[in-house]
Specification:
alpha/beta; Rossmann fold; DNA polymerase, domain 1; seven-stranded mixed β-sheet; 7 strands; binds S-adenosylmethionine
Amino acid sequence: MSNIHQPVLLKEIIDKIDFNVCNLFLDGTYGGGGHTNEILSKGSSVLALDNYKKSEIIALSNQKFGGKFHFFRSNFKDIDKIISENKIKKKFDGVLLDLGFSSNQLEDDTVGLSFKNDVPLNMNYADYEISAYDILNDYTEEQLTKIFREYGEISNAKKLSNFILDYRKNKEIKSTFDFIDLLSKSRVNFGSSKINFATKPFQAIRIEANKELENLSEFLFKINNYLNNNALIFIISFHSLEDRIVKNSFKINSIKKDSSFQDGQSWGYEILTKRPITASKEELSRNPRSRSAKLRIAKYKC
Ligand SMILES: C[S@@+](CC[C@H](N)C(=O)[O-])C[C@H]1O[C@@H](n2cnc3c(N)ncnc32)[C@H](O)[C@@H]1O
């Protein structure tokens, strides 16, 4: 399995880590191993997770790091199960989620994330239970409207879901091009002329198929249980809905810099990024995928 994915904001992350004290790092979104490789080469141990079967194959190349590298094919939201089932006693000094999908998955026609190729509807990039096919053919009008409004930020979501319900009375929605055909016939205004009209509907279905927001919230709710004092938590998001969840989670659990904990609070985050870090001009020119990446960092205190 070749790896074509380039890690984003790599330098910005590596520069923040003190490798003298970073013994164990959690990479919750291993992907093509770009971030993990760099962290391993600096001497830290890495526990890596990814649900994508091809990431598991790429991870075999890291076996040269011996006991310093462990990969589990798992959803990051199940971090508690991974820790308890594998009797992991050590806590993490650093954590990374580089959310969403990799370039490897974008190129994988069995995943079907790109609207450039006509392939069976899936969009499920990490083998969860629901596919885009199930959503578009089985969801009720209310469910579809909610997804298009909340995840696609499509203002005329109800018109689109009504159209889908009519369309599927006569024809199953089987492929990415069936979906695009439907979108173009729906006469729904998808907003900005700067992006392809299918971008937002595809985003909405992809977020739902992969339970992107639920997984992120669940992980953020659990992760504090597995961190050492001063552990750094890095989250790279690629759309505003994810970024909002990260920002709010850090804020709700924040402590004021250098102040003592408030009553009853035994842990908290020091927020290291008032505003998210974005890619440099150099990275943008090298890797266009980095243009929507936003990195937020917090330090865990207990
Ligand atoms: C942007 S890529 C990560 C790329 C990686 N940092 C690198 O530089 O090679 C995101 C990866 O996270 C995985 N992923 C997304 N959501 C996940 C989840 N809930 N649990 C586990 N893996 C997930 C995807 O399968 C994908 O491989």
